[in-house]
Amino acid sequence: MDVLSGAVTLLQKGFARSGARAAKKHPAPALPQAEPNWLAQPVGTCFTAGFAKADIMPDDLPQKPYWVAGYRTGNRAAGVLDPMTCSALWLDDNSGRGGVCFVSIDNVGMSSYDSDQIKASLRQELAHRGCRGLFICSCHNHAGIDTLGYWGPLPRTGRNPKYMGILYRGVRQVILNAYAGRKEGTLFHGTIDAPPVLRDTRLPEVWNNTLSRLRFVPNDGSTETWLLHFASHSEALLGKNNLVSADFPCYLRRRVLAQAGAEVIYFIGCEGGLIRPKELDEDNI
């Protein structure tokens, strides 16, 4: 086992050096510079925000086959540890340009086809509400139900039409509910270095330990909404798990709600090669 580990380490270092040489010889093209859309004369005097969330779970699991979008194909879900959800934050600076809506889903990912279908089904409603941007994102959760089709019993797809219908309806509903629940308030931004809970399983080892927060405080003193952003794969449960779960974002949201009384919409940042939480025990792989 020691010889094998040594060989793997040598191969990793060799690939890392080869990659560094290739990147130096053929550098990536420069990214275009962003163009901030500043307002010379702000019109609004406050922000408006609305939040909504919903469970997106089938009612026939585990009686019917659903596949965990994790580490191997054919991993049929044996039950539910905690429900997958979707949530939406509608945010408007009241400048007259319209609001933007951010959606977060507890799944491994969404194809552009699915995102475009949802957006197309809401085109008239969003135009009527003055939405200038809709962003549908995933938590890259490896304990959720397969939404891409990669994790079924090959060569069959793991994508379930019934479940995709549940997901579509849930996402559309939270978007409209977030708009309906808008309130005026104040928006705060802050960052903090998170505890050393991450690891990078591929060389070179590098990650971003910053936890970012947008905090919306309604003027009427009602429940706050926090947008949290952290650069990590959502895969604390790892490979032996066969239960549907929203992974650690679920428990992060629950803890903030219980201790701070704030609703949370969670987004992932740059995941690098394979940045994820450290194992809780050596056998959890």
Please sum up the structure shown.
With 285 residues, the chain is an alpha/beta fold.
Question: What would you say this structure looks like, in words?
Answer:
This protein is an alpha/beta fold. The chain is built from five helices and twelve strands. It has helices at residues 2-25, 112-121, 123-128, 161-180, 248-260, and strands at 47-55, 79-80, 85-92, 99-105, 131-138, 183-193, 198-200, 210-218, 224-230, 243-244, 262-268, 275-277. The strands form three sheets. The chain has an eight-stranded mixed β-sheet. Strand 8 and strand 9 form a beta hairpin. The longest helix has 24 residues, at 2-25. The radius of gyration is 21 Å and the shape is globular. The two termini are 17 Å apart. The relative contact order is 0.18. The model has no long low-confidence stretch (mean pLDDT 90).
H-E order: HEEEEHHEHEEEEEHEE
Count of distinct strands: 12
Indicate the structural class. Answer: alpha/beta
Largest sheet: 8 strands, mixed
- The averaged pLDDT comes out at 90
Give me the number of helical elements: 5
How are the strands of the biggest sheet laid out side by side?
5-4-3-1-6-8-9-11
**Intertermini distance:** 17 Å
Unreliable segments (pLDDT under 50, ≥5 consecutive)? none
Show the helix and strand layout.
Elements: H1 2-25, E1 47-55, E2 79-80, E3 85-92, E4 99-105, H2 112-121, H3 123-128, E5 131-138, H4 161-180, E6 183-193, E7 198-200, E8 210-218, E9 224-230, E10 243-244, H5 248-260, E11 262-268, E12 275-277
Features:
globular; eight-stranded mixed sheet; alpha/beta; 27% strand; two-stranded parallel ribbon; 285 residues
